[in-house]
Write a structure and sequence with these properties.
Length: about 110
């Protein structure tokens, strides 16, 4: 799990420091299809490089990689759309909780 948390941090730190062109590729509506192709190539590479890391069958792991790839991008896009109002560390903390532990990690119990 530490490796996944490190990958989440690496993704958001790199994304927060990328050029305006790269940010637009990831976040601007008209460029999103191009970003989706780039992200798919990255996730395909990760899937092949890290096959078996979760100890699950191929199809279950495909879901995990799809979840990580889509949700990292989605959270980053929302942060940009909100004008990057949250500090980067808080974004990383919330993203890590959501990606690693789901909604139960951020929803307060009754």
């Amino acid at each position: 799990m530490k490796d996944i948390q490190d990958l989440i941090r690496l993704f958001f730190e790199n994304a927060a420091n990328m050029s305006l062109l790269h940010e637009r590729l990831m976040c601007s509506g008209s460029y999103q299809p191009m970003w989706e192709k780039i992200n798919k190539r990255i996730m395909d590479y990760r899937r092949e490089t890290n096959r078996g890391v979760f100890g699950l069958n191929e199809y279950a792991e495909n879901l995990i990689f799809a979840y990580y790839g889509a949700n990292s991008t989605l959270l980053y896009r929302q942060w940009v759309q909100d004008g990057k109002k949250l500090p980067l560390e808080e974004l990383i903390e919330i993203a890590t909780k959501l990606i690693c532990s789901g909604m139960s990690s951020v929803v307060k119990g009754e």
